[in-house]
Amino acid sequence: MSAHFEVYEDKAHLWRFRLKAANGEVVATGDGFPTRSGAEQGCEAVKQAAAEADTRDAA
Predict the structure, then answer these.
(1) N or C, fewer C-beta in 10 Å, the chain?
(2) Where in the sequence is the signal peptide annotated (predicted)?
(3) Domains of the chain, first to last
(4) What is the pTM for the complete model shown?
(5) pLDDT tens digits for range 4-53
(6) Which residues contact 9 (CB under 8 A, 6 or more apart)?
């Protein structure tokens, strides 16, 4: 299995996403969105940002 995003509806009826590593561990979660498409757009935003991201020490 490869890393993947899961989109799901929570108990409060908000749409969320989580990123799972290849071993099934959740490595990131997103905020709640009122629509599924909002959560899917959140996945795409994370994909784009992560592709350009570097690693920095916290200030």
Answers:
(1) C
(2) none
(3) 4-52 (3.30.160.160)
(4) 0.85
(5) 999 999 999 999 999 999 999 999 999 999 999 999 999 999 999 999 99
(6) 15, 16, 36
